[in-house]
Design goal:
Number of helices: 8
Distance between the termini: 26 Å
Strand order of the largest sheet: 5-4-1-2-3-6
CATH architecture of the largest domain: 2-Layer Sandwich
CATH class of the largest domain: Alpha Beta
Number of strands: 6
Number of domains: 2
Order of helices and strands: HEEEHEHEHHHHHE
CATH superfamily of the largest domain: Ribonuclease H-like superfamily/Ribonuclease H
Structural class: alpha/beta
Shape: globular
Strand content: 15-25%
Length: about 210
């Protein structure tokens, strides 16, 4: 696990969408995390579902060619009350997966609840809460925060995969993770319970300058 963590990783995170596709590229070595690029790819002005999917496919291929990611992390198991909406999202998922497969990029899937749990410690967090937590721990300036939550959703997916690699964290002499979290200024209610270890780990990550 330690050896896996210390390797260099370039993680492409994708939040499938039919109008806006969130994407994020992370470069990681050990506890160092750098955001190479993230945003929401806009295809909503195109007429018809298939031209939009085609545009997303080619865009992802360009991103893969540019950054040479070691893996694709994607949100899956999407459920919606509207069957038509769900079908369209599944199509977008398939396009992202196909783009990765066409470039021989390994694929990892994560459910929305697992992603939220990894980032906030609460599987029922809102998109805004996920975005806020990512901004805090990755030290993203306000002016660099995207307007579309699709972008931060994708960033959360990529970061969730990074956490799966295993992150060694020192308690700095504290007797437990809750104490360590408080020393780091993590006094929010959601940061001082059973997920204090995870939150303390996130607090040690610095965005590479």
């Amino acid at each position: 696990m330690q050896d896996t963590l210390n390797r260099e990783h370039i993680i492409l995170g994708v939040d499938p969408g039919t109008l806006y596709m969130g994407y994020a590229v992370l470069h990681t070595i050990g506890q160092q995390v750098e955001i190479l690029e993230f945003g929401a790819y806009d295809v909503h002005k195109l007429e018809g579902q298939y031209p939009r999917l085609q545009k997303e496919f080619f865009f992802l291929q360009e991103i893969i060619d540019k950054y040479k990611p070691s893996c694709l992390a994607i949100e899956t198991q999407f459920v919606d009350k509207n069957p038509q909406t769900m079908i369209k999202i599944v199509h977008a998922q398939g396009v992202a997966i196909a783009a990765a497969l066409s470039k021989d990029v390994p694929i990892y899937e994560y459910s929305p609840m697992k992603i939220k749990m990894a980032i906030t410690g609460n599987g029922h967090s809102t998109k805004q809460q996920v975005a806020g937590m990512l901004q805090r721990f990755l030290h993203i300036p306000d002016e660099e925060m995207p307007k579309k939550l699709d972008a931060t959703d994708a960033l959360g997916i990529a970061y969730c995969h990074y956490l799966q690699l295993g992150m060694p964290v020192s308690t700095g002499g504290a007797k437990d993770w809750t104490t360590y979290a408080k020393r780091k200024g993590l006094t929010d209610k959601e940061l001082t319970g059973p997920n204090a270890q995870l939150m303390a780990a996130l607090a040690t990550v610095k965005k590479r300058k």
